[in-house]
Specification:
Distance between the termini: 108 Å
Strand content: 15-25%
Order of helices and strands: HEEEEHEEEEEEEHE
CATH class: Mainly Beta
CATH superfamily: Cyclophilin-like
Structural class: alpha+beta
Number of strands: 12
Strand order of the largest sheet: 5-12-3-4-11-9-10-7-6
Number of helices: 3
């Protein structure tokens, strides 16, 4: 009788130990699962923050108040992409990094077809088709600046090879904060994506903050539809890829920096 009682007691103790082990194992499993969920959430948040930082860097750091351009600057009668019926609007913003003859024409702007841009650089030649019919006011500004050699002999001050994949050009000061002294609104954003070969405007926050800076996408990049696509690279993409492969100096707080394989625009023309 005593023996049976002892056996029952031992069985009860074994059952309690097994139950305790199962409870401990379940607790550890829940901890591991929660740790994974937390790590995943943190990684997602970090990815979003990094993406926002990279995107925020695509443009001028200038925050000067914009005023109506008519008060101080006249529309050019010698330069621009005229020969059409489109109307554009440009507003004064900061000081032009180089002297310009007024601002781009605001009336009679071409808005049909495409045009060809040629970027002669210190690393090779890049060609692109400009989307005149989809972004007439952007192309008008680009032609206006090209005709006055605004882009000639200027460095491309930023390359990014993580998160997004772009070469940023268009600032004669080489600081990513210079511009043409005027700003204008976005175009062609509906459904905009940024595959390799996209030529798009940099800006300082969307809306009417485009100036002279632009970027060339050398590898598909996940960007919000906030940057006017105004052209497609048709030749010389390998030039940008080579510069990107050389790395950057990490000097841009928003991501990337000056290319270690320095590249400058020697001459930009539109035909």
């Amino acid at each position: 009788m005593a023996s049976n009682k002892r056996e029952r007691e031992l069985a009860r103790m074994r059952a309690e130990r097994q139950a305790a082990r199962r409870a401990a194992w379940e607790a550890r499993r829940r901890q591991r699962r929660n740790a994974i969920l937390v790590a995943t959430s943190v990684a997602a948040v970090v990815a979003v923050v990094v993406a926002i930082a990279l995107v925020a860097g695509l443009g001028s750091s200038s925050t000067k108040k914009k005023t109506p351009v008519a008060a101080t600057l006249a529309s050019s009668t010698k330069y621009g992409n005229t020969g059409g019926s489109a109307t554009c609007s440009y507003t004064k913003s900061g000081t032009a990094a180089r002297t310009l003859d007024g601002i781009p024409p605001v009336k009679g702007v071409r808005s049909t077809g495409t045009q060809k841009a040629t970027f002669v650089t210190t690393r090779g030649t890049i060609t692109a088709t400009l989307l005149t019919s989809k972004a007439p006011c952007t192309v008008n500004s680009f032609v206006f600046l090209s005709q006055q050699a605004f882009y000639d002999k200027t460095p491309c001050p930023r390359v990014v090879s993580s998160g997004i994949f772009v070469l940023q050009c268009g600032d004669p000061t080489g600081t990513t904060s210079g511009g043409p002294g005027y700003a204008f609104a976005d175009e062609n954003l509906t459904g905009a994506t940024y595959p390799a070969g996209t030529l798009a405007m940099a800006n300082s926050g969307g809306g009417a903050s485009n100036g002279s800076q632009f970027f060339m996408v050398y590898k598909a990049s996940q960007l919000p539809p906030s940057y006017t696509p105004f052209g497609t690279i048709t030749g010389g993409l390998s030039v940008i890829e080579k510069v990107a492969a050389g790395g950057d100096d990490g000097s841009n707080s928003a991501g990337g920096g000056k290319p270690k394989l320095a590249i400058s625009l020697t001459k930009v023309t539109v035909t």
